[in-house]
């Protein structure tokens, strides 16, 4: 590819990225809730395998693990929990998400760290069980503090 084209492409990507970072509060709220919904589905599949409710399947587990590892960072880095997204659409995010963003970020980073460990753990049921339990603690820990009932 010619440098000029590459530069134009990069410019286009960057402007899409910027537009998204500046997305309206309602679209940020919709995005973070959707991401949580997708997260919960994949977490549910892995949890069901870990508990023996469904048979362990390495390929399926690895796909869900990869999805979680790739998706988990995006809502935070895209600003979906950022300033100004405390209202604009129905939300259960606790006001503390916005009043103590550093603490929220720390809780969030435990979650991303746990998801990043999943792909390596998903190939074997014994390691998957441990990884799913660790991840589950990060969901619960954050919801207890930062999601309203
Ligand atoms: C760092 C904090 C944090 C972590 C970690 C976290 N969540 Fe959430 N989650 C939230 C917040 C805040 C909301 C409320 C979002 C809103 O209503 O705007 C939420 C909402 C949800 C929802 C409801 C989505 C909707 O449509 O209203 C589900 C389901 C969910 N989370 C599942 C999970 C699962 C499963 C995990 C772990 C694998 C997880 N979450 C990890 C903070 C977190």
The SS-based structural class is mainly alpha
- At the third CATH level, what is the topology name? Four Helix Bundle (Hemerythrin (Met), subunit A)
Low-pLDDT runs of 5+ residues are: none
Count helical runs.
Answer: 8
Cα-atom Rg, whole angstroms?
18 Å
CATH superfamily: Cytochrome c/b562
CATH architecture: Up-down Bundle
What's the rounded overall pLDDT mean? 91
Question: What are the SSEs and their pairings?
Answer:
Layout: H1 3-21, H2 25-51, H3 58-71, H4 74-77, H5 96-99, H6 101-116, H7 118-121, H8 125-146
Bound molecules: heme C.
Structure description:
Keywords: Electron transport, Heme, Iron, Metal-binding, Signal, Transport. InterPro entries: Cyt_c/b562 (IPR010980), Cyt_c_II (IPR002321), Cyt_c_prime (IPR012127), Cyt_c_prime_subgr (IPR015984). This is Cytochrome c. Pfam families: Cytochrom_C_2 (PF01322). Residues 1-21 form the signal peptide. This protein has 149 residues and is mainly alpha-helical. It has a single domain, classed as Cytochrome c/b562 (Four Helix Bundle (Hemerythrin (Met), subunit A), Up-down Bundle). It has eight helices and no strands. The chain is elongated, with a radius of gyration of 18 Å. The N and C termini lie far apart (52 Å). Residues 29, 32-33, 36-37, 39-40, 43, 91-93, 97, 107-108, 111, 135, 138-139, 142-143, 146-147 line the site of heme C. Heme C binds at residues 29, 32-33, 36-37, 39-40, 43, 91-93, 97, 107-108, 111, 135, 138-139, 142-143, 146-147.
């Amino acid at each position: 590819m010619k440098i000029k084209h590459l530069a134009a492409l990069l410019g286009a990507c960057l402007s899409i990225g910027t537009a998204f970072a500046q997305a309206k509060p309602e679209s940020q709220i919709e995005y973070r809730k959707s991401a949580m919904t997708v997260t919960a589905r994949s977490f549910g599949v892995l949890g069901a395998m870990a508990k023996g409710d469904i048979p362990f399947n390495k390929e399926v587990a690895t796909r869900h693990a990869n999805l979680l590892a790739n998706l988990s960072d995006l809502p935070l880095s895209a600003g979906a929990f950022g300033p100004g997204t405390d209202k604009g659409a129905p939300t259960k995010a606790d006001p503390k998400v916005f009043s103590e963003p550093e603490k929220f970020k720390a809780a969030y980073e435990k979650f991303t760290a746990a998801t990043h460990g999943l792909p390596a753990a998903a190939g074997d049921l014994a390691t998957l069980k441990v990884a799913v339990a660790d991840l589950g603690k990060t969901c619960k820990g954050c919801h207890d503090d930062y999601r309203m009932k």
